Amino acid sequence: MTTLSLRTARRVLLTFLLVSGLGAGSVLAQNIVYTTAVPFLQIEPDSRAAGMGNAGVGLADNASAVFWNPAGLASQRGAEVSLTHSNWLPAITSDLFYEYLVGKYHFEGIGTFGGHITFFNLGEQEYRDENNVDLGTFRSYELATGISYARQVTRGLALGTGFRFIYSNLSGGRDVGSTQTKAGVSVGVDLAALYKFKPFELGSVPVTTSLGFNLANMGPAIGYTVGSDGRNDPIPTNLRFGGAFSAQLDEFNKVNLAVDFNKTLVDFDSTGSKSFAEAIFSSWKSIRVATSNAPIDKDDPTTFEDVSVLRQITVGSGIEYWYNDLFAFRSGFFYEDPFNGNRKFLTFGAGIRYNLIGVDFSYIYPLEEESPLANTLRFSLLLNVLR
Asked: Could you tell me which residues come within 8 angstroms of residue 143 by beta carbon, excluding any fewer than 6 positions away?
């Protein structure tokens, strides 16, 4: 019988955890609140919002609204296509990369549709038998593809939704010990809203504000083993909410501010993960996690910490400056509690628009030592097919 080598199985698992950018030290030294399957669904796809501290639910004014807030598609016209590439976690490995293709098109009197394809390459794995004989290699990868739709309901309110198919091939169909594995398959649904307040003047400066909400990836748990007794893991159902503030300083200068709050809506009981419908409501509670690799002793408070709901929420905020709608400079800050992943970093970015073409890039500067997110770059190319 052939199996995945122990080293390969551990590498697949570690890579799986690192997809979301969790520090290797954090993963090994202490428990995080919860992990999910297919965390690549939470990787922020476009370089613009990524340069603003991963904040975009209140802006959502380009094709990548499919990810940030599908309702943002409603006010968009014409057609746009965007492609993002990133060599993911270059401080850890050289063979992870992320690709995101997204497009949108407006139908007059009907609404705006969007579509996307997300591909995450997890690299090459070794395949060995029980005697550690090399039987070759295989590649692990994950992908998702889906459609979104949004429509303006009132002058200020837009509603949107999305559906995606998820495919996760971690083991290449090889066996792990006596367990037969398979590719995981699931689906996810999004529900979103965006409200734009009536413009007003702050002094003599025209100002617009908006609030956004996106409940993303509502869907069944995903399984990787063959048989009825295999464990299924939840997909990352996520609540993102926040706002944006835009000020047209003069004819040439504009500033956008944005802030996003995120809460992963997963929950577990003695039998495993709860359904996404249950977890949407039951996940709003404090969670007890171990402070080390030792088991939790309820009589010894040094062995655990209670992580409140507020500490389970990540915060991203950013600023964007535009000159004449041609050049943009961006910066932001992202914070995550140490017991919820411990990501803390600054972001920087820039963009250029010329005629129908746009180019954006973003850079992550981690605030913790030896972060796997160090030197992570994203590049996005945009094409406005029709205005």
From this structure: 117, 118, 119, 120, 166, 167
Whether 243 and 260 have beta carbons less than 8 Å apart is answered as no
Contact 266, 287 (CB under 8 A): no
Q: 229: closest CA among 173, 279, 175, 179?
A: 179
In tens, the pLDDT along 241-277 reads: 999 999 999 999 999 999 999 999 999 887 788 999 9
Percent of the chain with pLDDT over 70: 86
- DSSP conformation letters of 206-234: EEEEEEEEEEEEE---EE-BSSTTPPEE-
Angstrom CA distances, 347 to 325, 336, 352, stand at 21, 14, 17
CATH code 2.40.160.40 for 2-386 = yes
- CB 95 within 8 Å of CB 73: no
Cα separations in angstroms, 102 against 29, 46, 85, 330, 383: 38, 10, 12, 22, 11
Mean pLDDT on 278-301:
86
- Place 29 in a pLDDT band, splitting at 50, 70 and 90: very low
Q: What is the CA radius of gyration of the chain?
A: 22
Is 48 within 8 Å of 360 (Cβ atoms)?
yes
Q: Quick count: other Cβ atoms within 10 Å of Cβ 294?
A: 11
pTM: 0.89
DSSP assignment string, 86-142? EE--TTT-SS-EEEEEEEEEEETTTEEEEEEEEEEEEEEEEEEETT--EEEEEEEEE
Three-state DSSP class for 147? strand
46: closest CA among 94, 104, 95, 107? 104
End-to-end CA distance of the chain: 59
Bridge partners (DSSP) of residue 152 are 158
Q: How much is the pLDDT for 56?
A: 96
pLDDT at 1 over 50: no
pLDDT band at 209 (very low <50, low <70, confident <90, very high): very high
Residues 351 and 360: their CA atoms lie apart, in Å, by: 4
Domain boundaries, the chain: 2-386
